[in-house]
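TL;DR need structure tokens for one chain.
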Amino acid sequence: MSYSTCLWFDGRAEEAAHFYAKLFPDVQINNISKMPDGSVMSVDFTMLDQHFIALNGNRDQPFTDAISFVVNCASQEEIDRYWNAFKDNGGVELRCGWIRDPFGITWQILPADLWKYLSVADPEKSQKVRSAFFAMKKIVINELAIAIK
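>> reply
TL;DR here they are.
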């Protein structure tokens, strides 16, 4: 058995796949299917160890924030790199580490150890960490570390 995630794009499937291939390590574009007129119908690719099909659908099926992809980052530099790549290419910053990419997909760019900060047992520290977290767009690990002290 195998599975794929199919993402509908409004004519930008190939552009999206190539954008992700530049951004993430180990993206493999496996196949580009064309329509009889030569336009791209779909792009089969692997990203973040998952199989995707980028399909040129239509505006009747827009992306929503009801689904997102989480990227657990090992460092602030990694967070900054992904965040800035999305933002600098037309992405929209949201709260709490969420950013909508230029194609409409929402990503959560988070520190891998986020729950270490959010699950602190001390109620006062927990409130400080949560207040800091909810006030952020891009997550800044150092600000969470300061809040937990």
